[in-house]
Amino acid sequence: MTSLLELRVLEGPNLYFPRAAIKLTLDITALAEASDDTATRFARRIGLRNARTGAAGTGFRQRFAARAVARLVRAVAAEAGTDRLAVRVRTTGDPHRLVVAFPWRHRGRAQALGRAVADVIDAFADADVEAAVTRAAEVAAAAEPGPGPTTITPRIPVVAVTGTNGKTTTSRMIAHIARTDGRLVGWSNTDGIYIDGELVEAGDYSGPSGAGRVLAHKQVRFAVTETARGGILLKGIGLTRNDVSVVTNVTADHLGLHGIDTVDQLAEVKGVVPRITRKSGWAVLNGDDPRVLAMRSTIKAQPWVFSRDPDSPAVREVLSAGGRATTVIDGWVCVLVPGADPDPLVELVDVPMTLAGLSRFNVENTLAAASAALAAGIDREVVVAGLGSFLPDAEHNPGRMNFFSIGEVSVVMDLAHNEAGLEALMEIMNGVRRPGSRLLLAMGVVGDRQDDLIEKLGEIGARDSDVLAIAHKERYLRGRTTDELDALMRSGAERVGVTDITTYPTEVEGLAALVAQAEPGDVVALMCHAERQQAYDWIAAHGGSPDTPDVLRAKVIAARP
């Protein structure tokens, strides 16, 4: 059995280094369970002459193994002719697994080094560990150099957006503002690649390939890239730097995948994006999220925070350090600069995405987008115009807080893929329902979420809605069955006493069933991911129409006592 579980080539800045790196996932059982004599002999061979190896199978041995593997990589590299190699080692939830990373300039030679290191660990079953290190160095030295990294150094302004919730909406708003300024904008996100507002390639392009495709377009003069967790972990960021970065927030999502098990670890991944923001640029950070605000300590760029609270400690601290802030004062989006009066940009009620100020999350997205656009050098008047003309509809922000009317029934479609997203959806549903009317929710989840998160979504949906239905996403089961997901959502709903739940095989069938039950003034919501266009078509075929900003504002007013 080989100790090399995975060798991954990261083409750009990543969790471990601000440049291309090799990531090894190693099974260190042989080292963790080796005899004291074998472990000591190995330590001496790689230059750890006074190391305390600890007893086999203990936490002390695991710590020794992490230190020893890092030293092993350097020792094999040095004997192969590469001196002063930086190496990072991370433990995982499995005490017999380690992640090792080191930067590379030549792909072939770096991959050979990684495999050679694994061969040494495999040799723990043999007596001659010393000879294994020598053989590994010879193999690594003889390898063909291979090509260099493909990381792109941008020649146009780049705004990179990351976070758990709101990154797609925020990146779309920034791109819209830049287009309002007359710039030819390219942007990549989870829906695809857009050039000057036109979708040119559908698919999830929130990784390095999306950024590369945008920057390769010769006419593009301004780029907006949505950067997701998966791309950072699996491929690295495709750009050497960005000019402005945005981190919307960090909440529990996609945990238990690729060695990221906690929200703190997830924040570390997201923090790669502001870490590579150029020194003269701006890192736009959510001042109301402690994990995001803490990224100030890792950046070279200037900090620009956004917060709904003008008196928050984050705003005070950043301004006192010479940074900037965007906040809300008396219902106005305002920019704060040290030693100057607030600059009121626009009233929240005049920003359609905030739903007349109702949507807390979209208020934050508005603050983030305004900050990033200003930080990128777009004129104040253009930013105001862009915020006022970006609508929560299928044209400007497909699949995110899209409102429709079918007769006197309101319908809202949103991704709502995690706890924070679902709570935001329920918040705006409550904000537009008339007194005495009901909330009807068609819920569905994707399969690559932890069990407890799926159960929690079921609990929130059942607690906050009057009628709950399950509408499955067949295209996004990701190794699960509909029965598994059904049971988990129902288990969460049972915690709050809700058991009367009907299941539908598709999102559109769930939507149709709830609209059929709805009465005038009710609000129907669909957690939509797989069948967005089909849902739009169904709504249109049944006499529905998108809500204009004036219609939405009227609904908000009618909902207030």
Describe this structure in words.
- By secondary structure, this protein is of the alpha/beta class.
- It has three domains: 4-142, no CATH class; 158-389, Mur-like, catalytic domain (UDP-N-acetylmuramoyl-L-alanine:D-glutamate ligase, 3-Layer(aba) Sandwich), CATH 3.40.1190.10; 402-559, Mur ligase, C-terminal domain (Protein-Tyrosine Phosphatase, Chain A).
- 39% of the residues lie in helices and 21% in strands.
- The protein has 20 helices and 22 strands.
- The strands form three sheets. Strands 8-7-6-9-5-10-11-12-13-14-15 form an eleven-stranded mixed beta sheet, with helices on both faces. Strands 20-19-18-21-17-16-22 form a seven-stranded mixed beta sheet, sandwiched between helices.
- A hairpin with a 2-residue loop joins β7 (192-195) and β8.
